[in-house]
Amino acid sequence: MSLLGSVAIFLAATLIAVPLFKRLKLGAILGYLIAGVIIGPSALNLVNDPYTILHFAELGVVLLLFVIGLELEPATLWRMRNQIIFSGGSQLLVSAIVIAAFSHYVLAVSFSASIVIGLGLALSSTAFAIQLMNEQRILQSPPGQQGFSILLMQDVAVIPILLAVAALAPVATEAGTPWYISLGAVLAVLLIGRFLINPFLRIVARYGSSEVMTAAALFIVLVTALVMDQVGLSMGMGAFIAGILLADSSFKHQLETEIEPFKGLLLGLFFIAIGMNLDLSLLVNEPVFIISMSVLLVAVKAFIIFVILRASKQSNRDSIRVALMLSQGGEFAFVVMTLALSNSVLSAEIAGQVNLIVGLSMALTSPVVIVYSLFFNTQNCPAVYDSFNDTGDPKVIIAGFGRFGQITGRILAANGIPFTAMDKDAEHIEFVRKFGNKVYFGDATRLDLLKKSGIQEARVLLVAIDDKDEINALVKLVQHEFPHIKLIARARHRMHAVELAKMGVDFFVREMFDSAVSASKEVLKAYGFTQGQADNMASIFEQHDVAMLESVIQDNLDLPQLIQTAKDGRAELQQLFEEDKQD
Known about the structure:
Elements: H1 3-23, H2 28-39, H3 50-71, H4 74-79, H5 81-105, H6 111-122, H7 126-135, H8 142-167, H9 179-195, H10 197-207, H11 210-230, H12 235-245, H13 252-276, H14 280-285, H15 287-311, H16 316-325, H17 331-342, H18 348-378, E1 396-399, H19 403-414, E2 420-423, H20 426-433, E3 439-441, H21 447-452, E4 460-463, H22 468-481, E5 486-491, H23 494-502, E6 507-510, H24 513-527, H25 531-555, H26 559-582
Parallel strand pairs: 1-2, 1-4, 2-3, 4-5, 5-6
Helix pairs in contact: 1-2, 2-13, 2-18, 3-12, 3-13, 5-6, 5-8, 5-15, 6-8, 6-17, 7-8, 8-17, 9-12, 10-11, 11-12, 11-13, 15-16, 15-18, 17-18, 24-25, 25-26
């Protein structure tokens, strides 16, 4: 089948399976897996070479790890070091020992093969578990972060596990990449990420378009992943490191937004490919063994993770939920089994059985988590962290951080009020960051970027952009999507103020009016009037002008009426000044 034909089948499978399984409340991931099984060799056989597709779809996991890295600032990662080492390390070690012992002493598998099976099945699915934690709104919570620490430790351990599998081969294999080359590659990524990526992105932002920024985001991820892959390390590890290095960058939200659609599609393709690679003939031949081993794998891993989380003083409910989400076998188990098969550590039959057990464990996990959640909901227990908010998100957002927006920003900062500022001038943002302000690169009129900036938790939005059309577009977008936000908008001129008022803006500020009135006072004083006289004359003008503007807004005048109102206003103002002189 042609490439376009295969793409059409993947899209059709996604469009049918995912909405159906979400409608049945079984989750999107299970829908992807079942869709893969149906179109794969074990059923309709609509797509050829599913293993090659799985290899390509692993880019979805790479992009996922990059986005996760963007959310983890280096300081946060350092604070998690104990969780990563102790929680993640103990889960991996205990799970591998228990599974290997069961394989060797109960199933009579050879010692070396048991070790490989134990190491492979100890790994959970990063993509699967994180997707579940996101759906259950638990990822950003303390137990969710501890679960993520376990997953992170597993990802780091993939390379040593692959080296161990090669070492267990009965026949010596070709030596891999020397350790010093791998270490040098990691250091190179760290240095380039620290000193070169931000200047590169500033150039792209200044001279490129939004499409070029998308290309730059994909380029950073793919090049980093390829470099790591070439030196024998995990592509996902490289993407994760790149994400962490950009976590403090002003481009963080923009990069995450550009990557998100590709990540979602490739992750879906990844789960479809897993379903396609499952050999259902083994299930037909040994249904009791395969199903019982899948259930046992989920139960054993869930119990081990539950004990670790309870030892870390997490609650019973949180520990059970996270343990269930991490109880499945992982995508790296397929890689481990493939390497073990090529090195003659495992037979083709055992490798196929393990792959099928991993796939079924993934299929079991989502329904089990959903059933557990429904059980607690029926017992009138609130959903865990459904109302969880990141209290660190500022309640004020300033869209446009030029000269106009900076005044408000400086006043807020001087009074210890946190705010998030957005601007699409990369050089401008970099300058402002030097003074400690939290600012992000991006077009504020994009809904996805607004959400990334935390507008759902904000109270006030100051629209300080210097383009009239963009101001209007942002006002309309926010009024439609986030009606709870109090809007304060910059009016470019008098007629723009009328437009904003008619759009229902809470408060608008004419950008030149107050400064021009202040300047007029100084002119009057220089001409010879006293301070009191100058203040009075300016006050008369200001009150009259504001009253006229309110009249125009309320009466909804057309252009000829506006012109006549302006003429009448000048005459009225002149009369006011004459009366003031007489007084």
